[in-house]
Amino acid sequence: MKQGRIALAAKALTLPVTLALALTGAVCVSPAGAADTATPQAQQTKKTQEKAPAKSTDKTANAAPQKPATKPTQVAKVTPAKKPVGETIEDVHNKLDTLARAKLRHMNESLRPCQTRKDVVQNGNEFVARYLAVDPDSLSTDVHDAQGPGAKYVGLIVYHEQEYESRAATKEAALTGDFSVVKARRVTEIIRYDKGKWID
């Protein structure tokens, strides 16, 4: 009974103190209630931090995998083709000889009068048959270095152009008689060699 009165007296003494603290705005919060009185935003932030996994600070972990370095393609070396050996002076001279002989054959066919188409004239009491021909045995050729631009070599073609005659009392006898050289002249032609051939 006595203890009950003491408790009531103590309660009566603490009530005014509690009211005074309430009126002045002071709040006494126990450590146990501090966690319960925290603002909802702070509690939400704390929960977010707990849920969010720690981000790795290792940059190499997020880096894209590097492709293996490719070996440079090896290109086979191409050996340039050897240039053909240039023509010798003998080769050039042989070409000139071939050209000259062909030229003489053509001249003997085109000359007028020629051996197949003789010319006959009457001279007094006799007839004279005549024709022109180039003597193939008189042919000679020579090659020299060109002195001016436009050609590498200069060629000389030398031959004898001969005139043949036959005289008889009749035209027919003159055409079928023996012909002999009555005149001859030395002819020299100059041609040039350029771009691998002789230019006539």
UniProtKB/TrEMBL annotation:
Which organism encodes this protein? Nitratidesulfovibrio vulgaris (strain DSM 19637 / Miyazaki F)
Keyword entries, A-Z: Signal
Task: Name the domain of life.
Answer: Bacteria
Q: Where is the signal peptide?
A: 1-34
UniProt biased composition (Basic and acidic residues)? 47-58
UniProt-annotated stretches for the region Disordered? 36-79
Bias (Low complexity):
36-46
Name-wise, this protein is Lipoprotein
